[in-house]
Amino acid sequence: MNDRGQTTQLLCEAKSGDTQALNALLSRIGTRLMVLVRLRMGTALRAKMEPEDVAQEVLFRAYANVADFEKQTSRSFFAWLAVITTNTLRDLAAFHHQARRDARKEVKTDASFPQLADRHRGALSQLLLDNRLSQLEKGLGALNPRHREVIILRRFEELSFAEIAERMEGTEDGCRMLYTRALTKLTLIVEHDQPT
Question: Residue 65 phi/psi, 5° resolution?
């Protein structure tokens, strides 16, 4: 079975309550998902909710739509998850920008996976303790917005340079050069912050 098939199988097993499958899935994508969520959230949404809750919602949506992933052949699991992350953040931002809300709507629950939610929250909280996560997030946060964006689009959303050029309104070659410069700057920032 290839990596894509293994990931799909883990997702299905986690959905049915298999703790080992959930842990294996989180070890594959958890840190990367948390970095993507935290970078994409923005300060306004961070003031309203925790990144762990957003990541949990992303995984709930992935569980609910695993059949859609199985039908796709061109994208990796994480690229598919990045699209779900973007849609989830858009939906949550729209929800939180409503002028008047019922206070009960502030608490988002998913009754279909109550035990899974508790296990998932604990696993993601552990990921936040990982120094590499905070170091990577800090490094990406120190980059200028265009450098940060090209790294997110290439490394997290796994877009081609043609897709990045379209999204960033540039050329493929220009985006390749921007990406190279961005990675160089990120490396310098991370190395500078290393303890001596």
Answer: -120, 25
